[in-house]
Automatic annotation (TrEMBL):
Protein's name according to its UniProt entry: Fat storage-inducing transmembrane protein 1 homolog
Family recorded in the similarity comment: Belongs to the FIT family. FIT1 subfamily.
Domain of life: Eukaryota
HAMAP family documented for this protein: FITM1, FITM2
Membrane topology: Multi-pass membrane protein
Family matches, as InterPro entries: FIT, FIT1, FITM1/2
GO BP annotations listed: lipid droplet formation; phospholipid biosynthetic process
UniProt KW keywords: Endoplasmic reticulum, Membrane, Transmembrane, Transmembrane helix
Any one GO CC term of the record: endoplasmic reticulum membrane
Subcellular location: Endoplasmic reticulum membrane
Membrane spanning stretches: 63-82, 102-121, 244-267
Example of a GO MF term: coenzyme A diphosphatase activity
Function recorded in the entry: May play a role in the formation of lipid droplets (LDs), which are storage organelles at the center of lipid and energy homeostasis. May directly bind to diacylglycerol (DAGs) and triacylglycerol.
């Protein structure tokens, strides 16, 4: 009797368990699919709205004015912000993880957006590489600008070592400021590393790269709205990866603007920050309104919109 019971249990239990597993999987898949559809709908609505905003003529033509006003009048906020805020700490997580690698984050997200956008329009490696070369030229310009600014700062500044009261012969209670011992063989990096005092003219490289990356992101992303309009007559929609990367680029733009506002409000340095913003604007102006407008005839990668509209027209033909 036990054997029969054991055989029956061994024969029918796997079937019952499989049925239960199938039912449980079906019950879990149906809500999961509905959640994915809802998230996809929200993603399409948000990305379509952001693409429409960034692609508007108001943003494309006047965003640099908004950024210029932020750089010029942002230090005024230092009179109202609290010195005990978490953003007043230069070792904050945002400053350590994002500010010190601004170009790296911008390069990764912008390159991913350019590749996905060019592949969604035309499966052409040459087109993707041509548009991707804009990021390479921008990185080369930023590297050259860093080296040049470092050389100018080393040439225009001097390193001083503050002397203690025992070294300069003054009494500890003397109200006179301590003497400064000149070190002519030190550059800025080695001087600050030795905890000495550096005095000279400088340009804020943080404000420079933040302004430049904000302008670059807007210039590259504003073409997404144009791409959506071109895809409507063909009843085609960009894939989810392209929309997700576009949304991440918008979030990155907001992070850069927030960090720029924090630098101007909590760490105001006039006029080095304004000089950095001006150089960032000139770099963007020289590339996107000068060099890239020459087209592929001169070996230039061209503007972000080039190669998109012509492809759509050729796809309309039977």
């Amino acid at each position: 009797m036990n054997l029969k019971t054991g055989n029956s249990s061994n024969g029918f239990t796997p079937e019952i368990s499989l049925d239960k597993l199938h039912r449980m999987a079906a019950e879990l898949i149906l809500p999961g699919r509905s959640i994915l559809r809802l998230l996809n709908t929200v993603l399409e609505f948000v990305t379509n709205f952001l693409a429409r905003v960034l692609g508007s003529s108001l943003i494309r033509r006047h965003f640099h004015l908004l950024l210029s006003g932020l750089v010029l009048f942002g230090p005024v906020l230092s009179f109202w912000v609290s010195k005990y805020s978490i953003f007043a700490n230069s070792n904050h997580y945002l400053y350590r993880k994002f500010l010190r690698s601004t170009w790296g984050w911008t390069c990764i997200f912008t390159s991913a957006f350019i590749i996905l956008l060019s592949l969604s329009v035309r499966h052409s490696t040459s087109l993707s590489l041509r548009h991707l070369s804009r990021v390479g030229l921008t990185g080369l310009l930023w590297w050259s600008c860093q080296r040049l600014l470092t050389l100018l700062e080393d040439a225009a500044g001097t390193c001083y070592e503050p002397m203690t009261p025992g070294q300069d012969g003054q009494s500890p209670a003397s109200p006179v400021q301590p003497l400064l011992l000149l070190h002519e063989d030190q550059n800025k990096a080695s001087c600050l590393k030795a905890h000495m005092l550096w005095r000279g003219y400088e340009v804020s490289q943080d404000v420079l790269i933040l302004c430049f990356c904000c302008l670059l992101l807007v210039e590259e992303m504003c073409v997404f709205g144009h791409h959506l309009e071109r895809q409507k007559p063909l009843q085609r929609s960009p894939g989810t990866p392209l929309r997700v990367v576009f949304l991440l680029c918008v979030l990155l733009l907001l992070v850069w603007m927030f960090l720029l506002l924090c630098l101007l409000a909590y760490f105001p340095k006039f006029p080095s920050q304004q000089l950095g913003g001006a150089l960032g604007y000139l770099g963007w102006r020289g590339l996107y309104h000068g060099l890239y407008r020459l087209g592929s005839r001169w070996g230039c990668p061209g503007l972000p919109r080039e190669g998109l509209s012509t492809t759509v027209h050729t796809n309309k033909q039977p």
